Amino acid sequence: MRAMARSGRDRRAGTASRSLLGAPEPVETRRGLPGDPEDRQSRYIEAAVNGVLVGCLYLPNGNPAPGAKFDYKLCWFERLRDHAKDLLEAGVPVVLAGDFNVMPTEQDVYAPERWVDDALFRPEVREAFRKLLAQGWTDAIRKLHPDRRVYTFWKYYRNAFARDAGLRIDHLLLSPELANRAVAAGVDRSVRGREHASDHAPVWIELSEPHPQRRQGGSRSL
Fold this sequence. Notes:
Its cofactor is Mg(2+); Mn(2+). The active site is at residues 58, 99, 200. Mg(2+) binds at residues 99, 101, 199-200. The chain is α+β, with helices and mostly antiparallel strands. It has a single domain, classed as Endonuclease/exonuclease/phosphatase (Deoxyribonuclease I, Chain A), CATH 3.60.10. It has helices at 2-6, 13-21, 68-90, 123-134, 140-144, 160-163, 176-179, 189-192, and strands at 27-31, 44-49, 52-58, 94-99, 138-139, 153-154, 166-167, 170-174, 182-187, 203-208, 219-221. The chain has a six-stranded mixed β-sheet. A three-stranded antiparallel β-sheet has the order 9-10-11. A hairpin with a 2-residue loop joins strand 2 (44-49) and strand 3 (52-58). The longest helix is centred in the middle third of the chain and has 23 residues, at 68-90. The two termini are 23 Å apart. 33% of the residues are buried.
């Protein structure tokens, strides 16, 4: 596990991940992305949970764009893609979950024309997200709700939540080992409507049991 934490390029990572997937309690396998030893921002943590490797992330916002913060966002995205590629090559079930600070398409934002210059919607960021998906990751919400407008974030001002003026910036990406096990996925909007709630709503997914151990009606939620 220590070797895995030092380098995302270490081919022992697959062995380490497999040995931890059966642990009864969550086991941390990585903290922080490889590729920049000087980057001390806490934006990525990874753990083995119930037979699945879960990478939780908070991708940089990047505003104002262009600028240094936007450049950092694109560099961080590239490091994420490098690590995500290693995870796929390890051949274990993986979920990449969290606030990606990206609206992938116009379907994911209530008023696309108002966001064209924002770091969450600029072409460079959307292209970076497309490149990540092209590695073989499946966008769980889009897989199960291909034509539906789904939002995960609503600003606090101008009554955005009541007007459903939202954005979809929180994503669940599934490795090929999990793509066909997605039973259901959605957004718990009721949480966003509570007093003093976060401006993000929880995004959830339900996975069926892996085929060799599948039981009648068996599933698990993350």
